[in-house]
Amino acid sequence: MAAAATDLAFDPWDPEFLADPYPAYAELRERGRVIHYEATNQWLIPHHADVSALLRDRRLGRTYQHRFSHEDFGRTPPPAEHEPFHVLNDHGMLDLEPPDHTRIRRLVSKAFTPRTVERLVPYVRELAGELVSGLVKAGGGDLLTDVAEPLPVAVIAEMLGVPEADRAPLRPWSADICGMYELNPSEETAARAVRASVEFSDYLRDLIAARRRAPGDDLISGLIAAHDEGDRLTEQEMISTAVLLLNAGHEATVNATVNGWWSLFRNPAQLAALRADHSLVPTAVEELMRYDTPLQLFERWVLDDIDIAGTTIPRGAEIAMLFGSANHDPAVFTDPDRLDLTREDNPHISFSAGIHYCIGAPLARIELAASMTALLEQAPTLKLTTEPHRKPNFVIRGLEGLSVVVG
Question: What is the pTM of this model?
């Protein structure tokens, strides 16, 4: 039988839980392998082995519309006024299943190649160095707005071929769209997401038209050119792919950066070890992604009845895989609540797994390593000035800001 979620410390809207959800996750893992959470009508999955297996289980899907109508699946269709968001979201790889997911990912992979990413390395390192240099010259500032945000936004924009003069709205558009991925979003959140979806889509439609007339050496031009046995991406698929790459490609990196540095400031011995040995950067990036992952929860629909530890979860239900809990599972990680920048055996699932494994993971690692290295080299005495505040979000975990001083 499934454990009940009554009287649990798990509460995605409680500021105390948001400040530190990890004790609540430990309680969930003690309760069992599957817990029904009435507030969102979801089945919570807190253990690493189950999350890892379910991410690869084809009885689950990011969508159900490739097999069922809303009515057949026992779901209410989204309101008509939300349509621009859903058109944009539902044509992206993250919310598609085979065969559409397979086709689009194959075509996108032809443009988003390891060579494309590797070619960006000098640009990423140079930009990270420039941003950190500006922070140092100012004597400090907000690590979020001065370094963490502008780096991945500029990199993805550079990849896509968005001119520098057009980049200012990208971050606000992304933030408004990503608000819809939180649990039980409000109508105000939905209205902002719809507006951003329309504006972002209109901009990209014009950019795609311009690249059709005059192709460049950028990802948009690559997506236009990508084909496989005569198959090509539709315009909507290109728009949704570009938005997904920006949203996923920088939201995770921004939050991983500030979550990571906040974790380092709270673990001064580990920070001192990192400052003394910069060769720890690669394992530090992985450990910080595990220790306080920017994506805490990933949802899947149950397409066919499944059994977990004797509990049958029926078709039409929704599963919430708790990445943050899985990454602190003592069955997989030795002393999981301890930050250990030398941790070698680190099978964290912060980039997901299975067919939806993050296509931008190599680029995210490059960006995180570049900003960390630049800060270690140029700001070896970086200090926190005030304790930061958490954003009132659960699914996408981040800070409102991270005020620092140099020296």
Answer: 0.93
